[in-house]
Amino acid sequence: MSRINWLEKLKWNEEQIEDIQNAAYAYIKQGKYDIALPFFEALVVLEPDNPYNSQTLGALHLQLGHAKEAIRALDQALKIEADHGPTLLNLTKALFMLGKRDEGLKLAHILKNEKDLSISNVARALILAYER
């Protein structure tokens, strides 16, 4: 079964995608994550191979406390870009939210060695918070 190319079906181009992205970013900047969420749900459908859309959708779900939905979106993003540190960190947080402590700790221990301090420092903090 092939995927529907919605951009082609709608006869849309990058301009319409940018309009949706700009609206979504404006809501994120205002902290209105619940309003930004459907914009990114649409972007994931319109551009299924763009990891940023799934990464952001997962982050929004995480921010709203929807851990299962966050994991679903983050897993999709990781299928496209497997080693994206911020996505892996958000996945770690979602695992902890769901009470999957061992899985979260395993991933946090991997991320504590990231070169990007914004990821490794948060991973270390999560280890301190969740390790017994």
TrEMBL record:
Family annotation (SUPFAM superfamilies): TPR-like (SSF48452)
Cytoplasm listed as a keyword: no
Keyword DNA-binding tagged: no
Record Gene3D superfamilies: Tetratricopeptide repeat domain (1.25.40.10)
Renumbered ranges of TPR repeats: 17-50, 51-84
InterPro entries, per the entry: TPR-like_helical_dom_sf (IPR011990), TPR_rpt (IPR019734)
Keywords (A to Z) from UniProt: TPR repeat
Name used for this protein in its record: Uncharacterized protein
Source organism per UniProt: Candidatus Criblamydia sequanensis CRIB-18
Lineage: Bacteria, Pseudomonadati, Chlamydiota, Chlamydiia, Parachlamydiales
